[in-house]
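Hey L., structure's done. Input below.
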Amino acid sequence: MAATPRPTMTDVAAAAGVSRALVSIVIRGATGASEATRARVLAAAADLGYRRDTRARLLRSSRTAMLGVAFNVTEPYQAELVELLYEAAELAGYGITLSATGPRRSEQQAIESLLDLGAEALILLSPETPEEVLAALGLPVVSLLHPLRAGAVGSVSTDEAAGISLAMEHLRSLGHHRIAHIDGGSAVGSAARRQAYLEFMHLQGWGPSAAVVSGGPSEADGSRAARELLDGARRPGAEPHTAVVVFNDRCALGVLDVFGKTGLSVPGDISVVGYDNSRLARLGHINLTSIGQDGAQLAARAVQAAVSRIDGGPVVHEVVAPYLEPGGTTAAPQCEPPGGPAIP
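Output:
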């Protein structure tokens, strides 16, 4: 006769009508759940005969010296940051335990896994979970790459406005003024970069030529946005843009692909600037001009913020300065006939 499966936190969550993360908070005795919710969860656990895993209980009864890191497996730059987080954590005397998110695994699942593994603090790369939910987890949380301004969740991020200003100043210094922006859609950081672009165009008096094309974080998003940008340039009376600032390097790869396939020379016909200065950007056949995020500083400060909170320190919100990495995708615009260069 087969043994009856042991009830899990997921079973308790379903019976109590709450999330698994909330069950974890109640079972661990952490703050963040109302008395009514706590009573409902405990009653459901009792009805199901749920018992905490002895190994997990022993793990949490002592210091694990582990920082939990959740990152998106589809984002190359986040993978680069994970390597740097390992180095920073080791210097601080901590280890790293990872939990990935992706198309088939939610951020909530990643966080719950880190809680079960006994992480003393969480570092979440570009988290999308609402801040109030993160604050209720019952342990220190640091948002990396997604800036927060206040509250119980710390943050370490790049100065997005400064990054876009660097890109725009670089293009202005080369002689560009008809500059478009392919944004990141709803991705973390997109709104701040888009706003910085629009403000720069307005302050330079170039507002009438400003153009924001909806993009996203992936190569496919960049390809779609590039085609839309070129379609706009073909309209009667349109003046084509001579440069484009793209949300990130992955998106820029899609842009470069479409430009190449339609016969546009980069940077001869149009200059392209990416964002992240990732390893993709530095490939010899890409050589993308890109805004760099200081990954070593971001990782070191995120670990410091998490460890400080573990030791009872205050919540911190830090911003790290970006830098420009020139590449082979930007140059002075060609001498243009009236109406701008012809774009296929």
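The first strand starts at residue 66 and ends at 72. The domain at 1-62 is CATH 1.10.260.40 (434 Repressor (Amino-terminal Domain)).

-- N.
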